[in-house]
Amino acid sequence: MALAAFAVLGYLVTGDRAPLDSFDVEGKQLEDWADNSSFFIDVLRVVEIAFGTAGMTILTVILVLGLLLRRHRWAALLATVVMVVTSLATSGLKIWLGRDRPEWQGDLGLLSSYSFPSGHASSTAAYACLLVMLLVLFVRRASLRRLGTVLAIGWWLAVCLDRVLLGRHFPTDVIAGSLLGIGVFLLALAFIDPRPRSTAARTEPLPEVYASERKLAVILNPIKVEDVGQFRAIVGAMAKESGWSEPTWQYTTIEDPGTGMAEKAAVSGADLVIVCGGDGTVREVCAELAGTGIPVGIIPAGTGNLLARNLDVPLYLRSAIDVALNGQDRAIDLVRVGGDNIEDTHFMVMAGMGFDAAIMEGVNEEIKKKIGWVAYIISGLKSLMFPAIKVEIQVDDEEPTVHRARTVVVGNVGFLQAGMPLLPDATIDDGVLDVVIIHPRQFLSWITVALRVLRKSAIVDETLDRRTGSRVRIKASADTPRQLDGDSIGEGRELWMECIHGKLLVRVPR
Fold first, then answer.
1. Mind spelling out the 3-state secondary structure of 143-186?
2. How many C-beta atoms lie closer than 10 Å to residue 100's C-beta?
3. What is the spatial distance between Cα 64 and Cα 201, in angstroms, rounded to a whole number?
4. Do 201-326 and 342-500 have matching folds?
5. What is the pTM of this model?
């Protein structure tokens, strides 16, 4: 449809046909208005240069490389085809149709190349379409999808307006360019499916050690998905395709975040339990199913999703479901934890006392619902100068050591959000816990800490110290915020942890 509209527009404005001349002449009035402000013209020139051929090429390379790094090969292929075909088509049509530039370009370095269609408009329209598509596919939070879509469309419209205000193009040039970019995107989308391919479609099924009824149970935190009915339909269809039984469904509640549901699934004889929720829900279900031999498939639907990230479980919904149904089982460690004023429990990812726990405690839940993980950054900035505390740390049967620290983190895995390697040597199935003790003395010392963490520096000193062992005990000199897997558990003075090696089976990518 977009390409047909482009063809009609091209026919109307080229050759001796001029039914839209009066409309195009309106572009001169816009250019005259922009000429009244030299600052505005400078801004328009920056936009022109930034999103010209070189700028859009750089943006395309960044997008494609980002998709490839995240293993979205088909989306990367679609982006490459769309941007290359749009560029070639724009250049070829300019030469073929041969429409001259407007006479009122001004004295900003007159462009002598042909005008129809606008290359800026076609490339930004195509790129904006790709961004909106990726937002729909990979961003679950509706508010972020809406914000991203508004920003992408607003950017495209701003570039189109820039071309008219500078007098570089007639209004019909940018309309035609936009139609061309959108048309190429839709045409390519008809032939290239950007969604990740399923494991079941790519590989042979894993041999079963024992015959089972392939009974499937799903535990869902209903507030973590936008449309429960749609989610159930997707899981049911994919389970049937992969040879699983019709799943039984249980929903978590505030009173029971997953423990009772996991126990019921185990008692009912489930051969696989899928849990969909944040790290808190995943922790409760995994702790209950540890030692049962029942594998757990994780559908990450929270803000952090740290366990899923460290297991390379994809965040894209269908890919995560596919891994849960068709992936391979991996035995991972579970960590038993206790302390003052808390019941003995377990965690899967990390526990901490100090600054990191203060961040979790200070997160505004309303802001978190709207902007996701950015809420943690806001809370982190507020808590950045959390006061140093005196802590005593004992690892295994070694003598306790005393430290000054702003935060102490004990991890079963190594990476935080955005791939930050806080504990780079931590492995989730090595039977060992990794401890990091952080004590930046001044505000700017946080920069040094961040650089050392990002570089995976092996240097240890009073600012950043490390320990490893299967058992860890932390005692603070004063009541201190504490957290388990990103959930605040209140203030206290003590945490003890013990790693239980290979206690839990989880589904991971093959």
1. HHHHHHHHHHHHHHHHHHHHHHHCCCCCHHHHHHHHHHHHHHHH
2. 11
3. 24
4. no
5. 0.72
Helix (H, G, I), strand (E, B), or coil: what is residue 194? coil
- For residues 131 and 148, the answer to whether their CB atoms sit within 8 Å is yes
Percentage of residues in the chain with pLDDT exceeding 90?
A: 38
Residue type, 47: V
pLDDT tens, 305-323? 888 888 888 888 888 999 9
Picking from 220, 239, 247, the residue whose alpha carbon sits closest to that of residue 322 is 239
Q: Does 410 or 165 have the greater pLDDT score?
A: 410
Integer-rounded Cα radius of gyration of the chain: 28
Q: What is the DSSP string of 291-348?
A: TS---EEEEE-SS--HHHHHTT--SSHHHHHHHHHHSEEEEEEEEEEEETTEEEEEES
Q: Which CATH class is domain 201-326?
A: alpha beta
Domain ranges of the chain: 2-191, 201-326, 342-500
Query: In this model, does residue 506 exceed pLDDT 70?
Result: yes
Please name the amino acid found at residue 286. C
Which secondary-structure segment (H or E) carries 100? none
* Beta-carbon count within 10 A of 254 CB: 6
- Pairing status of strand 272-277 against strand 216-220: parallel
How far apart CA 312 and CA 401 sit, in angstroms, is 35
- 487 vs 464: CA distance, rounded Å: 24
Distance separating alpha carbons of residues 78 and 425, to the nearest angstrom = 36
CA distance 274 to 278: 13
Contacts 24+ apart (CB under 8 A), 34-41: 34/165, 34/166, 35/106, 40/165, 41/108, 41/166
Burial class from Cβ neighbours inside 10 Å (0-12, 13-18, 19+) for residue 485 reads: buried
Which of 76-85, 297-306, 341-350 has the largest mean confidence? 76-85
CB 350 within 8 A of CB 411: yes
The tens digit of pLDDT for each residue in 92-119 reads 988 887 777 777 665 556 666 777 888 8
**Residues 342-500, CATH architecture:** Sandwich (2.60)
pLDDT digits (tens, 9 = 90+) for 13-67: 776 556 655 566 665 665 555 556 667 677 877 888 888 888 999 999 999 999 9
Of 160, 73, 413, 181, nearest to 65 by C-alpha is: 73
Tens digit of pLDDT for each residue in 181-206?
999 999 999 999 898 876 555 555 55
